[in-house]
UniProtKB/TrEMBL annotation:
Location, primary (coarse class): Golgi
Compartments, as annotated in UniProt: Golgi outpost; Membrane
Keyword Membrane: yes
Pfam family, one: Cys_rich_FGFR
Residues that span the membrane, as ranges: 1108-1131
Protein name: Golgi apparatus protein 1
Keywords, comma-separated and alphabetical: Glycoprotein, Membrane, Repeat, Sialic acid, Signal, Transmembrane, Transmembrane helix
Record-linked PROSITE patterns: GLG1_C_RICH
Intervals holding Cys-rich GLG repeats: 247-307, 376-435, 499-566, 571-630, 691-750, 758-818, 874-941, 1003-1063
Annotated organism of origin: Esox lucius
Any one cellular-component term (Gene Ontology): Golgi membrane
Position of the signal peptide: 1-26
UniProt topology in membrane: Single-pass type I membrane protein
Amino acid sequence: MAVCRRVPPLLLLLMSIVLYVHPIRGQKLPNNAIVKSVVSVDVPAQNQGGVAAGINGPVVVALPPRKRTSGWKLAEEGACRDDLTRLCPKHSWNNNLAVLECLQDKKEETEIAADCNHLLWNYKLNLTTDPKFESVAVEVCKTTINDIKECATEERGKGYLVSCLVDHRSNITEYQCNQYITKMTSIVFSDYRLICGFMDKCHDDINTLHCGSISTGEKDVHSQGEVIACLEKGLVREAEEQPGAHAIRDECKKAIMRVAELSSDDFHLDRYLYFSCREDRERFCENTAAGEGRVYKCLFNHKFEEAMSERCREALTTRQKLIAQDYKVSYSLAKACKADLRKYRCSMDTNMPRAREARLSYLLLCLESAVHRGRTVVGECQGEMLDYRRMLMEDFSLSPEIVLHCRGEIEAHCSGLHRKGRTLHCLMRVGRGDMAAIDSLCQKALQTLIQEADPGADYRIDRALNEACESVIQTACKHIRNGDPMILSCLMEHLYTEKMVEDCEHRLLELQYFIARDWKLDPILYKKCQGDASRLCHTHGWNETSELMPPGAIFSCLYRHAYRTEEQGRRLSRDCKVEVQRILHQRALDVKLDPELQTHCMTDLGKWCSEKTESGQELECLQDHLEDLVAQCRDVVGNLTELESEDIQIETLLMRACEPVIQSHCHEVADNQIDTGDLMECLVQNKHQKEMNDKCAVGVTHFQLVQIKDFRFSYKFKMACKEDVLKLCPNIKKKVDVVICLSTTVRNDTLQDTKEQRVSVKCRKQLRVEELEMSEDIRLEPELYDSCKQDIGRLCQNVAFGNAQVIECLKENKRQLTQRCHHRMFKLQEVEMMDPELDYQLMRVCKQMIRRFCTEADAKNMLQCLKQNKNSELMDPKCKQMITKRQITQNTDYRLNPVLKKSCKADIPKFCQSILNKATGDSELEGQVVSCLKLKYADQRLSPDCEDQIRVILQESALDYRLDPQLQVHCTDEISRLCPEEAAAQEQTGQVEECLKFNLLKIKVEGCKKEVLNILKESKADIFVDPVLHTACALDIKHHCAAIPPGRGRQMSCLMEALQDKRVRLQPECKKRLQDRIDMWSYAAKVAPAEGFSDLAMQVMTSPSKNYILAMIGMGVCVLFLFGLLCGRITKRVMQEQKDR
């Protein structure tokens, strides 16, 4: 039994190198000597008990005693004659080996008679134990033995030489020697009992697992394939820790694996698989030559075809599971990668048990690590790796960890989806959280399998993804080389686009979920960033992990360094930053592609965002509820939002929606490698361009709304003002509060004329940008929006947000606002009037007019400039209308007219204090102070500066009654009744006021009558405040009153004197209008007599007939004086006469 003691090395090396040779059919070949030598082996005579006296002991057979000659042939034996005639071609009968192969390779074992089976087995046993076996080897392999030193030194006559030749078969170059060893191998593997040592090592396990019997008679002698298959299945069950699995002894495990290894090159040698797949081989692999594992690979590739028999599929799966446990069970893989395994020391890890190093996963990880590090791995080996990586992705059952740890998930959610990687993708979907919670061990097993298969390097490895996305790849990614890692990035770029199909979308997101959790699984990212990751994040090799820096944390480390400034320290290389940005763009498409976000925000997603299922909505939802999130989730969302503020291109969906406006208005900043917030600022500035679509506008506005939650979310503002915020506004976080704080500081410094502004120049500049942006949408000012939300729903429900339309709507409905909203709106208008540039609607509507008339005007005097040019023929009607609205607003309250407020600073408390005393602090004065000042203007008691401003107001309100708030309040109904046509015309020529003057007697409302009388009184003070009269008398003023300065009623007195002077001929229209005014003033004097001596004196002094009145008064005084003197003398004489009596 010397040869049996040397079986272990024999078996190990047989597996690696066996080649299949087609049956020799008796033709005259160069190896005839081999055949003759082998077939000349005698079959020993039988003893009476029917036991053949073999070299290695008794073997039970049932042969008739007969003496064999050296020319003995199997074809001549009666036991096999019928089967031979029926099953084997006649030309093969003279070749015992050809007959042996023909008979033993039949599909059904029952086709051959039992006696013939025994005869064949006895013949093979004698072949393997006969010393002639070695002598033939010496003759045929003479040159090879001399070349292989190990075999040349082997002791002859004990069977060691053949064992050595098998061990070194890969080095055999002689054709005949190679054929001989191959033929003998096929004989050995036709029955496990002929493999010396196998029976001894696995005896107990065979019985325990009920795999069959080693005794002839209990089991058919050709059932040895079933026995080995049974043991292999038992080994697989043990690896998967299936219920009831039997622990096979280590020495039997080694024997099973070596048998599988020995049969790795020729599927004929795996008897169970051979008989299970013979028809499938003919169906799928008819033209595939046997040898070097080619038939195995062909069958593996067709494993999930519908036409594949279930028995063959099961046998193939068992073999694949053995390959997963020991890569050497795959002849082609072991051969192709042998040199690279040695080169990269993939079997030299002394810290790992030997069994681990033999696993397919370890080999793949080791060699993939070399590839990712840029090392050379031969193409043949890479091809084999690709095949087996695809195999792992196709069939989850080849991974024992998946079977063991994901059993519950498979049964609950993924049963019946076994083929073509569908079960694995179903498990991925469960892992994403799309279906149910997943066990952590199952999640880990999935992550490990994805790393082993590494589908990120070549999408074709994932068959389910490949099939689902084939049409998308052909249309959207056809410019990329097939198998290139950029295919996955291309697919991600087209996620949620018209070119994407639903099935591809699901498969892609399922795979990307796991790739996103290990930065190494994106080969492009790893290639560009491995140096930076090692330098900045202390990473190790591709297939090594660190508890201090797990794979999921490395990408976070990279993107933190990607957006650092030079002052902040070490930064990423440009190539690495580009890849980091690419990954961030992809992650923005789905919240589950960001591991940190999903880990810390799962509870909040369920609480606040369960109904937000559209792409990109979940992150927007989290940002909307930022204040409500738990601390860890709030930090993660905050950091991501802060990152987006610097590089908004991370928001891929927003960039797609905004593509038209970017191309038209922002292409220059979009092309910059470094964004620093410029692109978002450009989008905000162009939010109302015609190229802006609804999706883009909504996205930009949402980002603006998010920014107001924290000033850090506005990158440019943060960088410009962070030092000012720390110094002037500490402990303030909300951006809107920071803006208010800084704006108030700037305004106070300006009003107090401080020599040095406390807010830096760069911050003031950016602060102006932020203030202008906030003025565009009421939602960007939370306090105002919250105060007016009820009013918006009631008064402006059909008005769209943005473009300051809602703010304008509230202004137009100011009288109907709730007190709280009215107060906030008044404060807003006060700020806008002080700084018209913050009046978004005014600046938008009058943009072109500002360029035309006010290019040199200061920003704070913009409205004043527009008012001065309002009546220009070149003025745009829409702008003119907007200016009028602002004038109406200013006249309602002197506080909304900064110029008037400053000019009349002393006059207002002097003449209108009673009005101020009655008003509350937050109420609007409805034009009462302005009306008060108008009356004092008529009395000529105002200071010069204030008088100038009131004159302007009077002139403007005389042309447009809407600019007189008190007239609006009291005369609305009367105007509708008496002057509907003039009001409808909306011509700012003073026709409504003129109508009211003419219909003064018809006015019923006392308040309105009083206001019209005030207008008449004011018009006496200056002809310029009576536009109708001024227009009618313009030529007469030029001819007769040109030397008289305007104001204080001087030109009006001049015209009255000219009217009374018969020598002066006035224009008929002027004369008529003057006579009308005299009548109106006379009536006014009757209706509204002087309220006191001062009022009477003022009326006389301001009357056009002042001289006449004064003369008459003087004359009356003189008459009275003379009368007094006369009466006094008479009285004195009478008194004297009485005394004298």
